[in-house]
Write a structure and sequence with these properties.
Elements lengths: L1 E5 L5 H17 L9 E3 L5 E5 L15 H20 L12 E3 L5 E3 L11
Antiparallel strand pairs: 1-3, 2-3, 4-5
Length: 119
């Protein structure tokens, strides 16, 4: 597993937002959003636990060739479309926030800056 820790009380709101959105995505069964395995927001340091993606991030493991890049882009577009359908905007999507699993599937991570636009 991977453990993300928040020691700074000033960052707790974003951390809480991330846990809330991860739980919401999990309840909806949205594919491609990193699953939340556990979290403690009541104590400092607060933490959340997700699966460990041994291939790391897209920044560490870019696609090999145009076909792989196209497939990755299509999969990411589906994930982002599912999030958008729920009114969620990631807000900080970058290669280091896209994790790659053993079967080279992308997973969107770091929803701390994500938001739901106001109507």
């Amino acid at each position: 597993v991977a453990v993300k820790v928040c020691r700074d009380p000033a960052l707790l709101d974003g951390f809480r937002n991330e846990v809330k959105l991860l739980r919401h995505c999990q309840e909806l069964g949205l594919p491609g959003v990193v699953p939340l395995l556990a979290a403690d927001l009541e104590h400092l340091p607060a933490y959340l636990v997700t699966p460990l993606f041994e291939r790391g991030s897209l920044a560490q493991n870019p696609p090999a060739g145009p076909a792989a890049l196209r497939e990755l882009a299509l999969r990411l577009a589906r994930i982002l479309a599912d999030l958008a359908a729920q009114g969620v905007v990631h807000g900080d999507l970058k290669p280091s926030n896209i994790l790659i699993d053993a079967s080279v599937q992308p997973w969107v991570a770091d929803l701390g800056g994500a938001r739901r636009p106001r109507p």
